[in-house]
Design brief:
Order of helices and strands: HHHHHHEEHHHHHHHHHHH
Strand order of the largest sheet: 1-2
CATH class of the largest domain: Mainly Alpha
CATH superfamily of the largest domain: Ankyrin repeat-containing domain
Pfam families: Ank_2
Number of domains: 3
Strand content: under 5%
Number of strands: 2
Distance between the termini: 61 Å
Protein name: Ankyrin
Helix content: 40-55%
Structural class: mainly alpha
Keywords: ANK repeat, Repeat
Shape: elongated
């Protein structure tokens, strides 16, 4: 359907909603309205009008891209409990927004995250709008409960950059969680090159990320746990090289004592 997004992605007035309800309650299709059922559904979503939403669905409203994006822009547990049983693809790539699961994580809505996972949301799927996989987003936002939940539902602790994200942002609790679930301390997030459309992986280890940021305490912690200091990233850089380039003297001194490789 040809639509003006400024209109379709906006709440409807009480008068408009009452008019649409009268039409939908009175006939098999909204014959008295020039608006499609999908248009009405989108406006109902933005208006948080559950009665009108259910009326539209009962009249066969299609879950097209406009509807998907309307749901993504108003992503709540209440809406998902209506739309998923109605056939919503829980792993749909919402244009420019990403996936419903990562939207829920960014919104810090643990109940919605739990529901989506129970309904089949794939924590390793990386829709085009997302810069990071679900687990990395939970790590970034320091959402320990969500991270645990994602791992329990199959989120990969290796290959997708979660440990590097934790090291980069001083998330010691997250690093401990990831190690408890089998994270490889020398993992270089290699799978990101294939799975993440937006983010270009440099294949860096957690030690690379910590050294690049100048996180001396994290560098020490990782070395004590057995991190290899002479691993090269995709650009041929070691953690020591990154620390030197970024002027992190304390980190340079720590890595130098470990005889990190310098060509």
């Amino acid at each position: 359907m040809t639509e003006d997004w400024k209109v379709i992605w906006s709440p409807a007035s009480a008068e408009e909603r009452a008019y649409w309800k009268s039409i939908l309650n009175d006939a098999a299709a909204p014959k008295g309205s020039t608006d499609s059922v999908e248009h009405i559904l989108c406006r109902a979503i933005f208006s948080r009008d559950i009665e009108l939403i259910q009326l539209c669905l009962s009249h066969g409203a299609k879950l097209d891209c406009w509807v998907h994006e309307s749901i993504g822009l108003n992503c709540t547990l209440e809406l998902m409990r209506i739309f998923i049983p109605a056939g919503l693809d829980v792993n749909y790539n919402v244009d420019r927004l990403g996936g419903y699961l990562t939207l829920a994580i960014r919104g810090e809505d643990s109940k919605l995250v739990k529901y989506l996972l129970e309904q089949g949301a794939d924590p390793n799927r990386n829709p085009m709008g997302d810069r990071h996989p679900a687990l990395s987003l939970a790590v970034l936002d320091n959402q320990i409960e969500m991270a645990e939940m994602l791992i329990q539902h199959g989120a990969r602790v290796n290959g997708m950059g979660a440990l590097g994200m934790a090291a980069k942002h001083h998330r010691f609790n997250m690093m401990e969680l990831l190690f408890r679930h089998g994270a490889d301390i020398n993992d270089n997030a290699k799978e990101l090159r294939r799975s993440c459309v937006v983010l270009r992986s440099k294949e860096r280890t957690a030690l690379h990320e910590a050294a690049s940021e100048g996180n001396a305490d994290v560098v020490t912690y990782l070395l004590e746990r057995g991190a290899k200091p002479d691993v090269h990233d995709l650009n041929g850089q070691t953690p020591l090289m990154l620390a030197q380039t970024n002027g992190h003297r304390e980190v340079v001194e720590i890595l130098a004592t470990k005889q990190a490789y310098v060509p």
